[in-house]
Amino acid sequence: MRFRFVLQPAVATFVAIRAGLRDATKTRPPFLRSLLTQAGSRWKLLREGLKDIGTVLTLAVILDFLYQLFVLRGVYLLELVFTVSLLAVAPYILIRGPVNRLATDLKGHQKMRNKSGKQ
């Protein structure tokens, strides 16, 4: 069951990269900054983030539940919530914004290169 320490962050990272690239194509600001500074759209952003990471959360909860059941011989909800947050939610939140910024910067550099090539 130790593969959950690799699988959950890896899947969350994949989903975050996909969401960050989508944000960059829609020219949205970075996710975490928007979440913290834009009170009016905070719930919309949270719902969108939960929709993106819903599968990852489900997988993380199932894996941790099974681990606790078989190894610890019981289910500890607080530990489950902490583990899922640490292994699935944190990587998603921490990676989505930087991917957005990187993709936006690369898109900007490509536009500048195309403009200078046309002259």
Explain this structure to me?
This protein has four helices and no strands. The mean pLDDT is 85. It has one domain (4-118). Helix 1 runs antiparallel to helix 3 and helix 3 (42-72) packs across helix 4 (77-118). The chain has 119 residues and is mainly α.
Keywords:
119 residues; mainly alpha; 86% helix; elongated
Fold topology:
Blueprint: H1 4-25, H2 31-37, H3 42-72, H4 77-118
Helix pairs in contact: 1-3, 1-4, 2-3, 3-4
Shape: elongated
The amount of beta strand, in percent, is: under 5%
N/C terminus separation: 59 Å
The Cα radius of gyration reads: 18 Å
The major sheet is characterized as: none
Q: Find the structural class using helix and strand composition.
A: mainly alpha
Number of strands: 0
**Element-by-element helix/strand order:** HHHH
Helical fraction equals: over 70%
Structurally, the number of domains stands at 1
Tally of individual helices:
4
